[in-house]
Amino acid sequence: MTTLYGVEWATAAEVVAQLGADVTPAMLADWKRRGLIRGVVVGAGRSRTAYYRLDDVIEAEAWTRTSGMGRPRAA
């Protein structure tokens, strides 16, 4: 993970490692497209890497789990 100005940013692989396999890279991209989370892409060509704001991802995952959207997270 990377911290910039006190905000933690993580790649999709880091998010999956932190939150579990119920959160997928495709899910992150969809949440970003829908405006639920913030993300940035760094680099160009094949070296592009997407970073997601970790606190946004945690909040979106909790909302998805409690709202009945998507499948429930295993305990």
Spatial order of strands in the largest sheet? 1-2-4-3
Overall morphology: globular
In the CATH scheme, the class would be Mainly Alpha
Biggest β-sheet, characterized? Answer: 4 strands, antiparallel
Query: What is the subunit arrangement here?
Result: single chain
CATH fold group: Multidrug-efflux Transporter Regulator, Chain: A, Domain 2
- Euclidean distance between termini CA atoms: 25 Å
Number of helical regions: 3
Describe this structure in words.
This protein is an alpha+beta fold. It contains three helices and four strands, in the order ββααββα. The longest helix has 14 residues, at 54-67. It is globular. The chain has one domain (2-67): Orthogonal Bundle (Multidrug-efflux Transporter Regulator, Chain: A, Domain 2). The chain has helices spanning 12-19, 25-33, 54-67; strands at 2-4, 7-11, 39-42, 49-53. Strand 1 (2-4) and strand 2 (7-11) form a beta hairpin.
Please tag this protein with its features.
75 residues, Multidrug-efflux Transporter Regulator, Chain: A, Domain 2, alpha+beta, four-stranded antiparallel sheet, 41% helix
Give the gist of this structure:
The protein has 75 residues and is of the alpha+beta class.
How are the secondary structure elements laid out?
Elements: E1 2-4, E2 7-11, H1 12-19, H2 25-33, E3 39-42, E4 49-53, H3 54-67
Antiparallel strand pairs: 1-2, 2-4, 3-4
